């Protein structure tokens, strides 16, 4: 067992002039089936990471099987949220990472997507409005659809949406993904 602390001491600074934009980009969500990957990268272990940022960043791009890649999911504006919660007990803590979002409508395409991915292990890449790119799911703990709530709305002005929540459990909060986002090429019609 290697218990070496390779990360040098660093301050966790605060800059009062830093601009922070909250939220998820409605055009920056990518999801792929776990089974479409050839390789799934991970952040380095604490015994090999060289900085705090390094310990929370996936630097290399994932690779896919031939003809596969991430598919884009256009979410409703201001509906996306990446959050996490501590699970476990002292000495055995993990982080449950969640990605919640809604898409427009409850039609057949949305219902079919729900049916296809409801029990499918996935990796989700989520661009936040401040430029961070988070990953939900990993090689050892892929994300799963934990909740799905389609709603027709009751009256004019109500949302007619389907809300999803994908969840993983990791040793760390949702890491930054710095690799390329490889998208599949849709068949031409």
The overall pLDDT, averaged over residues, is 94
What is the multimeric organization of the chains shown? single chain
Total of helices? 2
Number of E-type strands: 12
Tell me the Rg in angstroms.
18 Å
Low-pLDDT sequence parts: none
* Helical content band: under 10%
* Proportion of beta-strand residues: 35-45%
**How far apart lie the N and C ends?**
55 Å
Shape designation: globular
The biggest sheet, with number of strands, parallel, antiparallel or mixed sense and barrel status, is: 4 strands, antiparallel
| H and E string | EEHEEEEEHEEEEE
Q: Which structural class best describes the helix and strand composition? A: mainly beta
The strand order across the widest sheet is: 5-1-8-9
Describe the protein:
The structure is a single chain. By secondary structure, this protein is mainly β. It is about 5% helix and about 40% strand. It has helices at about 50-55, 110-115, and strands at about 25-35, 35-40, 55-60, 65, 70, 80-90, 90-105, 120-130, 135, 145-150, 160-170, 175. A 4-stranded antiparallel β-sheet has the order 5-1-8-9, with no helix packed on it. It is globular, with a radius of gyration of 18 Å. It starts with about 25 loop residues before the first strand and ends in a 12-residue tail after the last strand.
Short description:
The protein has 189 residues and is mainly beta. The chain has helices at 52-55, 108-117, and strands at residues 24-33, 37-39, 57-58, 63-64, 71-72, 81-89, 92-104, 122-128, 133-136, 144-151, 161-170, 176-177.
């Amino acid at each position: 067992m290697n218990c070496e602390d390779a990360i040098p001491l660093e301050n966790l600074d605060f800059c009062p002039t830093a601009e922070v934009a909250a939220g998820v980009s409605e055009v920056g969500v990518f999801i792929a089936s776990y089974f479409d990957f050839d390789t799934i990268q991970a952040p380095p272990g604490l015994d090999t990471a060289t900085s705090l940022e390094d310990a929370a960043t996936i630097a290399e791009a994932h690779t896919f099987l031939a003809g596969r890649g991430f598919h884009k999911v256009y979410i409703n504006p201001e509906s996306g949220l990446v959050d996490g919660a501590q699970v476990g007990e002292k000495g055995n803590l993990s982080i449950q990472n969640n990605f919640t979002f809604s898409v427009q409508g409850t039609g057949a395409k949305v219902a079919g997507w729900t049916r296809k991915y409801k029990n499918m292990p996935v990796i989700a890449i989520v661009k936040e409005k401040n430029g961070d790119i988070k990953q939900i799911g990993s090689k050892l703990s892929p994300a799963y659809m934990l909740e799905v709530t389609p709603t027709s709305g009751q009256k004019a002005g109500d949302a007619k949406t389907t809300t999803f929540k994908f969840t993983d459990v990791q040793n760390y909060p949702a890491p930054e993904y710095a690799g390329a986002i490889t998208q599949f090429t849709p068949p031409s019609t």
